[in-house]
């Protein structure tokens, strides 16, 4: 698996989601969404199984990430050793003694790591704004792929999307839907805006999803059904597990 093909969240958590399964970043172990897996005397759904897998098979996953073999990993061997020690929770004085350096040197390196992280965060924000932000109100917003023939009701410009959100939501912070629209283009705009409030790369039980949707609109079962029917959300056959469609990324 090329980690650079994944999102930042997927790299950090150690696994990624395909259309049908959760996949370990380190060994490509795969756990299908619609299956449960025996562990001891119990059974784990895929979302819990991937966490169990990482904890038992890759307990030192942070070291695997720190030592990723990539031209983009420019950490020196000393920096990698320091990061591994920090990850283990070792105290500065202990690390200094092990590496035969002054404690002030360790503290300075920790400060340097924090500064580089701030630089990287700002760079990513600038890059996203320059290369990935919409450039025209006539540009179409992205929607999940639909089965069958798509018509112009699935073509929504950024300007149209903005107008529809303003029309159907009384407020966007917090998000409150005033009424359910009748036309498909408006329905898609509403569903897209609601999906943006759901954390990516997170699984929900039906109760947890209800907790997310109920404050938005009283008829939350309607929201849940349409989000699944139009491909914004995926779920297991029994409806025990819901998650954002991994092939649809805004």
Automatic annotation (TrEMBL):
GO biological process: regulation of DNA-templated transcription
Domain of life: Bacteria
Protein keywords: DNA-binding, Transcription, Transcription regulation
Any one GO molecular function term: DNA binding
InterPro entries: DUF2087, Sig_transdc_resp-reg_C-effctor
Stored Pfam families: DUF2087
Organism encoding this protein: Levilactobacillus hammesii DSM 16381
UniProt protein name: DNA-binding response regulator
UniProt domain DUF2087: residue ranges: 176-244
């Amino acid at each position: 698996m090329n980690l650079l093909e994944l999102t930042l969240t997927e790299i950090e958590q150690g696994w990624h989601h395909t259309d049908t399964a959760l996949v370990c970043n380190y060994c490509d172990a795969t756990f299908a969404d619609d299956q449960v897996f025996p562990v001891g005397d119990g059974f784990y759904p895929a979302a819990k199984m991937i966490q169990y897998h990482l904890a038992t098979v890759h307990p030192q996953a942070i070291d695997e990430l720190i030592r990723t073999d990539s031209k983009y990993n420019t950490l020196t061997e000393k920096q990698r050793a320091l990061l591994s020690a920090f990850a283990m929770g070792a105290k500065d004085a202990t690390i200094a003694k092990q590496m035969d350096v002054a404690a002030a040197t360790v503290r300075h390196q920790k400060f340097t790591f924090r500064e580089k992280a701030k630089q990287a965060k700002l760079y990513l924000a600038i890059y996203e704004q320059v290369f990935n932000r919409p450039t025209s109100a006539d540009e179409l917003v992205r929607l999940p792929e639909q089965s069958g023939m798509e018509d112009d009701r699935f073509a929504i410009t950024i300007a149209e999307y903005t107008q529809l959100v303003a029309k159907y939501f009384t407020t966007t912070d917090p998000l409150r839907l005033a009424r359910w629209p009748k036309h498909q283009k408006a329905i898609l705009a509403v569903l897209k805006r609601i999906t943006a409030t759901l954390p990516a790369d997170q699984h929900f039980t039906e109760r947890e999803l209800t907790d997310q949707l109920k404050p938005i609109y009283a008829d939350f079962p309607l929201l849940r059904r349409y989000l699944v029917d139009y491909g914004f959300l995926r779920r297991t056959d029994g409806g025990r597990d819901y998650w954002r469609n991994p092939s649809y990324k805004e």
